[in-house]
């Protein structure tokens, strides 16, 4: 449900509450109306042309670290 | 003196009436740009010597929206598409015909640029447009311009390429990155607009095919994965040959941008159209040599071996995913539409 | 693709799988409902079933907004566009969903109705601006993820005085559906993979009641395969320990509170709808929203007095049971025979997130080749 993809904010138009995001070389204008704060370089989840939420890089890192801890286990 | 106001004029019903106005359009637009002796014979048909051997003939109707897209337009597409259909039998394409259905009110300037691009594509391919026709439909009854092209060609004696010849053990090759054309079209569709450096891969493949059949006349199947993409083509070939196929996701060349666009719109690159790629199925022992030939040819420089033909009564195409799983790669159901969920 | 590729690493997946294998208790059955179609899609697309121990089974849930929309609402939209000669804008996902009498938006469009597919509600706004002499109705569907953009669009239309823009609101809410499923007691499950993108908006705390009232472990799970697997592991651990909590595996995008700004926008434009019909689940109280009277000018249901149309689902289609996790798609007699993605009989065969479509496109490998 609810296809949303992470894309990097490349530029912001605060007046229009919009941003250009980049997803592996694809640039698309989206609305940032649902976000209180957003900065260039942030990754946001894009759904139907709107940024739903910013991705928290520290939390993402933590989740990935959990996967890495599994390295000790042999499949 | 030119009586056709290409700069400001539009297509009128009279342009298709067969009268003097039609003749002007044909002379000043089509004959002028397509410019070849057979067309200039000026008859309702073109006459030429038939070469010895088996002939192939293929026809293709072209409708595309938008008419102009990154990397091409409906004109170049209509030349490449038919040349490729002829070439996929291993044939050398010889001649093309073209018929145009124009919508009343369509700008002559746009029509001219389409014809110029078509003429350039045909000249570059060395396959002239030698006969044609034009009709005009009332405003609102067409989408600017539709182009049907038909091509004929001749197949080398020792070549026997057909969609029903794939055998278990054969290897499957693709001539390069998939999904470029469909992504370029999507990027310029109203409502979806996104910016990308991806351009259509629209190209005539008969040169590549000639090099391939010369190196390996034993090729079993060739097909261009246009509408419905690679997935659909592999399913067609599986059914026609009554075999199954096993491909490897990790070996299929897909550009990052195409993957990005697909993730964004919820599409699958395997189902995105190509206009300058071919799928080749050949005996395993010929594959490496063939891959070399392809990679040495500009239009095949990113060619790859992506899987093999297996025996399977259900004629399924299955894929080993990059992730390590197995999944069925099915026919395209309906049309590939962007999704939100 | 950052934040995507890292979460699709096959080797790590096998390590998590090994861990799950180690930790599951042999004498226990783990029936985990993946609530969202997004999870269903990931499970099939990446073949996660095959990596799981035999006593762990994923049960499909009702979390596909296209699948739970009753046929009658689509039929009402078709009647509206045909009777009023207006422009109907819809997300492409809905185009092929069967309405009653073998009809669909797709077929209505072929008959001449002006139905336009849009990628975003903003495109529908643009169509309204460009066609001031015509009424433009946006067919709004989706869960809490898709609702805030609709709210923004209605506010924009009001600010601009865009009188010809209307919304046919079909937005529904996830926690009530989840509670209803659990309260009905029909489905036997002992853990839930909770919605990921819905939760970015409503927050993980929104499931606390559900978890407490029904004593079921819930893990908010991302949609990438490693997210699903890690969440599975977390559920297994909760089940083994007899714990019952809401855990948040998708912490990179979901907070306990969710997106407050989006919530405020929704609350400003929408209010609770007393009763709404879900395909498969029936009429559920307080499970959907409607446009507040302050914005009545933009409410297509009010403007055109749209009433609910009761339509029977196709005979033999067990979508309702599939959506409640009671049956697997291949237990339906029509599955892959009369009902295929080309000729869908039920909604679950249309959306690639629908359990039947996912089974059909990706799952047949298992049954047809015996692998
Ligand atoms: S297979 Fe088709 S008919 Fe059967 S439950 Fe699924 S959607 Fe309904």
Give me the strand/helix succession of chain B.
HHEEEHEHEEEHHEHEHEHEEE
Report the portion of residues of chain B in β strands: 15-25%
State the helix count of chain B: 9
Radius of gyration over C-alpha positions of chain B, nearest whole angstrom: 21 Å
Structural class label of chain B: alpha+beta
Ends distance of chain A: 31 Å
Main sheet properties of chain B = 7 strands, mixed
Helicity range of the residues of chain B? 25-40%
> Average pLDDT of chain B, to the nearest integer?
94
Sheet with the most strands: spatial strand order of chain A: 3-2-1-4-5
Any idea of the CATH class of the largest domain in chain B?
A: Alpha Beta
The dominant shape of chain B is globular
Average per-residue pLDDT of chain A, rounded, comes to 91
Helix content of chain A: 10-25%
Strand order of the largest sheet of chain B: 8-10-7-11-9-12-13
Please tally the β strands of chain A and state the result.
5
Describe it.
Chain A is an alpha+beta fold and 75 residues long. Helix content of chain A is 17%, strand content 41%. Chain A has a single domain (5-72), classed as SH3 type barrels (Roll), CATH 2.30.30.140. The longest helix of chain A is centred in the C-terminal third of the chain and has 13 residues, at 57-69. In chain B, the strands form 3 sheets. Chain B has a 7-stranded mixed beta sheet with strand order 8-10-7-11-9-12-13. In chain B, strand 2 (68-69) and strand 3 (72-73) form a beta hairpin. With 371 residues, chain C is an alpha/beta fold. Helix content of chain C is 39%, strand content 18%. Chain C has helices at 10-23, 37-45, 65-68, 71-84, 105-110, 121-130, 147-160, 174-184, 197-202, 208-214, 225-241, 260-269, 300-303, 319-323, 355-369; strands at residues 30-36, 56-63, 87-91, 115-118, 136-142, 165-171, 191-194, 218-220, 246-248, 270-278, 282-291. In chain C, helix 1 (10-23) packs parallel to helix 11 (225-241) and helix 7 packs across helix 12. The two termini of chain C are 31 Å apart. The model of chain C is unreliable at 367-371 (pLDDT under 50). The B-C interface holds B 191-192, 256, 259-260, 263, 265-266, 312, 314, 316, 318, 321-328, 330, 333-334, 337-341 and C 1, 4, 8-11, 13-14, 37-38, 44-48, 50-51, 64-66, 91-93, 95-96, 106, 117-120, 123, 126, 142, 146, 225, 340-342, 351-353, 360-365, 368-369, 371. The structure holds iron/sulfur cluster. Iron/sulfur cluster binds at residues 317-319, 322, 329, 332, 334-335, 339, 345-346, 348-349, 356 of chain C.
